Amino acid sequence: MIPRPFRIDVRIAFFLMMIAVFFSFTVQAAPSFTRSEETTVPLRVTTGNEQGYTIKVLALRTDAGLMIDLESFSRALRLSSRQESGILLMEETDAAPGSSCQVKSDNNFALLVPKDSQRMKRVVQLQSAPVLMDGKLFLPVLNACRLFTLWLDKDVVYDYSSGIMSAWLWGTRLGDSVGYVGVVRPGETVAALQEAQIPAEPGTVIKGVNVENRANGAIITFTASGKGVRTELRKPDESGRAYLSFQNASCNIDALTKLFSGGLVKSITPVRPSDGTLQFALGLDNRGYSIKTVDFQRDEKNNRYQVYVMSEADVEGIRQKEKEQQIAKVINSDIEKWKLNTIVLDAGHGGHDPGAIGGRGTREKDVALNIVRDLGNLIAQKWPDVRVIYTRKDDRFIPLHERGRIANRSGGKLFVSIHCNANRKNHIKGSEVYILGPHKSKDALEVAMFENSVITKEADYKQRYKGFSTEYLIMSSMAQSAFAKQSADLALEVQDRIDRPNSTNGKGVRQAGFMVLWTPSMPSILVEAGYLSNSEEEKILRDRQEQTKIAYGIFQGLERYRKDYENARIAAAEQ
Q: Where is the MurNAc-LAA domain (predicted)?
């Protein structure tokens, strides 16, 4: 047996050697190509609880295949990055404590450095070296996906049939407890870095692999199709790696390469030895667990191959850890549930209902629609992770009750309704922001009555709105009380940023019984952008540049509200 201090010295020497390799050694030449065309590739990111976003990643379409801009890819995954002299450094910003990944042009190795000094650095061998073009580093699409998979311990894949990349960022980090996964040792073939699919052959096809952790071990199940084949199990070696070999079998390497944490099984890696068999390397944690036996059995009825790993472990400790993981999962689920990821924009009036009309013929429905479109475009540009839902995107009439239903069906987290005002006293001007509630002034009542008059343009309005009264409004306001503070906070932020000088209608947020604010089950505001009855303000409201300015002011209010809201949400989750 090698003395322990000597083994530590060997590890240190090896890691220093790998660092030297990273900066000086190239295993495989970078792909060469004679022509290229700039393009983009959609990246669909899932952040959990059916939430996520889609964003485009810069790429080159070449005669050698599709090449991905690594810096663009990292930004799309919300990672920070900086590049200099052909070296790209990417860092995790949201994860704690996080890690960094460094790649270099014409070099086949990536250096993964955890910010936690207690964790090991890793060197990952790339199948091909990054190519530097016009100051940007490119990798073939499959290689790029595999790099981010190994670094982040998340599934990042590319689908040739659809031309879409997908990343699943939900859940805890898979590789936290795996100290050596990804470390390239001399002479070792790292199959997890390969992206080729083992070609299908006659016989059996391994379709999936599942690990079920138990208090006294784990069960590894391989599901298959086709006829049964000869199978051999090699018991774990000193490093804790066992091997399950299938003769005359095939599989998809990318789909079945797995990394795990928090359990007995650390990794599952399919490889193809020189003798042509299909072999799965089973990485077992023989440091944290005392492995007693490893046995194999085939379930012929269900065409499954199962490996049973028995261990001696701290049963109470494992149960406590499982409980903590379950609690963390629930907390993360709640955090995702209340993430501000869907905003519903409502352009007032529309179709046969023009709304207020100014002295120069400016129609409220047109102004509101332009502001809503501009606001939606701003949200899409600034917040690619936020989904924008429109109650209408063109000149059509949408009943008031249906607008709220659209918001609720889409899972909206905010509802913003845009209108223009009018008054018999044409000297009145200025913007106003309302929330739902009993009116506290005659002016607020008049504004609400005008906006609510649209219901008479609905065919069945008498039957549909027969229950609307002051009493019903109070009850609706009470039902909305869960969102009252958020609605008021949002209204204040928006009002502060769209208020114009020389306003004559007073400051502050107002409340009134707007029917369009009844049904949305979320924080909701109604913005009156200005008075079309005032000739000076009508001139502003009909100007496209001014409409865009109003939209930007509303967005600034949303931006401030979102920052405060999500900071409060995170703080509450940490308590």
A: 404-559
Q: What is the average per-residue pLDDT within 117-133?
A: 82
| 430-488 pLDDT, tens digit each | 998 888 654 444 454 454 444 444 444 444 544 444 444 433 433 344 344 457 778 88
Tens digits of residue pLDDT in 196-207: 333 434 568 999
In sequence order, what are the beta bridge partners of 51?
48
Residues 6+ apart with CB under 8 A from 404: 415, 516, 517, 518, 519, 520
Please answer whether residues 203 and 276 qualify as being in contact, where contact means their C-beta atoms are separated by less than 8 angstroms. no
How far does Cα 108 stand from its chain's mean position? 29
Task: Give the count of beta carbons closer than 10 Å to the beta carbon of residue 512.
Answer: 25
**DSSP annotation string for 116-140:** STTSPPEEEE-SS--EEETTEEEEE
Mark whether 307 and 379 lie in a shared domain: no
Domain termination residue (choose one: 313, 330, 354)? 313
- Helix, strand or coil, per DSSP, at residue 438: coil
Task: Say yes or no: 362 and 498 in one domain.
Answer: yes
Contacts of 461 (CB under 8 A, 6+ apart): 455
Residue 277 lies in a domain: yes
Interatomic CA distance for residues 209 and 229, integer angstroms: 17
Q: Is 529 exposed, middle or buried (0-12, 13-18, 19+ CB in 10 A)?
A: buried
Residue 560 burial (CB < 10 Å; 0-12/13-18/19+)? middle
Total number of domains in the chain? 3
The Cβ of residue 192 has, within 10 Å, a number of other Cβ atoms equal to: 25
Q: Are residues 383 and 521 in the same domain?
A: yes
Report the largest interatomic distance among the alpha carbons of the chain, rounded to a whole angstrom. Answer: 96
Token pair for 42: 């959609």
Range of the domain at 348: 341-461+469-574
Pair (149, 231) in one structural domain? no
Residues 126 and 236 in one domain: no
